[in-house]
Write a structure and sequence with these properties.
With 307 residues, the chain is an alpha+beta fold. The chain contains twelve helices and eleven strands.
Length: 307
């Protein structure tokens, strides 16, 4: 019997896409014979994941899980929107969101965490084998507050905590928790609609600001403005840009005569204390994933040797 080393388990996992514990069980059953272990996994239906792994998974669901003072959001992708209506898949996303709530927002830690007698990654592989589509935990995040609430909103919700756009927003405040929760939902709805990049300008990446400065300066130079005027145009343009991309500077979607910062300030009397936004997360399903477009007629022609 060959020694069942970690390297051997890793080789089997890479070949089949099956979970670590399933690979170890297969090698144990086959006394360390790698080829026999591959067949063992195939017979158990556990190696299907590898055959699906190169397919683009841009559909799926966003999942949110919350507890007092904290919240977690995950994006779990599948190949088709049809799978989002599958009870098994919905249960998987809820399970992963719950695990993210307890482990924190690191996707790798979530994948490695136990969910019952399997890791999350093994649960995903098992779902791939059962449902027959490639699935991935693409990303995960969590927020918490020492005092206050983590508000949530799910757009295009298909079930409690499941939908297409999910938002968390952390509101630090000593005020009334129920009032804060209601406000948190409204602010989360704003974030879902307005898609800010940061809470305020200090949260924007330096390269983002420099790129915007460059665009503004080049436009001003093209119109023949002198350098001292260009500087003022860039400064004014940045303020307008911040109103577009910074949460606190954006016009509040529930009352666009106010900025979000002004709306929060006005809400402090009702809440019973100062309110500070310490962070937010907005996930939209499939955002940034390049979807493959297929030409069915061309594929048929190619298969027939006509192209």
């Amino acid at each position: 019997m060959a020694e069942i080393t970690a390297a051997l388990v890793k080789d089997l996992r890479e070949q089949t896409g099956a979970g670590m514990m399933d690979c170890k069980a297969a090698l144990t059953e086959t006394k360390g014979d790698l080829e026999a272990a591959v067949d063992w996994l195939r017979k158990k239906g556990l190696s299907k994941a590898a055959k699906k792994a190169d397919r683009v998974a841009a559909e799926g669901l966003i999942g949110i899980s919350t507890a007092p003072g904290k919240g977690a959001v995950v994006e779990v992708n599948a190949e088709t929107d049809f799978v989002a209506r599958n009870d098994h898949f919905q249960g998987l996303v809820k399970l992963i969101a719950d695990v993210a709530l307890s482990t924190g927002g690191d996707a790798e830690a979530v994948r490695a965490a136990k969910a019952g007698n399997k890791t999350v990654q093994e649960a995903i592989a098992s779902a791939v084998a059962t449902i027959g589509e490639n699935m991935t935990l693409r990303r995960a995040a969590s927020l918490s507050v020492g005092q206050g609430v983590v508000g949530t909103y799910m757009h295009n919700s298909i079930s409690e905590g499941l939908g297409k756009i999910g938002v968390l927003v952390a509101l630090e405040s000593p005020g009334n928790v129920e009032e804060l929760a209601a406000l948190g939902r409204l602010v989360a709805m704003h974030i879902a609609a307005a898609a800010p990049l940061a809470v305020d300008s200090s949260g924007l990446a330096t390269e983002v600001i420099e790129r915007e400065k460059g665009v503004l300066a080049d436009k001003a130079k093209a119109s023949g403005k002198p350098d001292n005027v260009i500087a003022k145009i860039v400064e004014s343009g940045l303020k307008s840009y911040y109103k577009e991309v910074c949460l606190l500077d954006q016009p509040y979607v529930h009352d666009d005569k106010k900025s979000v910062a002004q709306a929060l300030k006005d809400a402090e009397a009702k809440v019973g204390g100062p309110i500070k936004v310490t962070g937010f997360v907005r996930y939209k399903i499939g955002e940034g994933i390049e979807k493959q477009e297929s030409d069915f007629a061309a594929e048929v022609a190619a298969a027939a040797g006509k192209s």
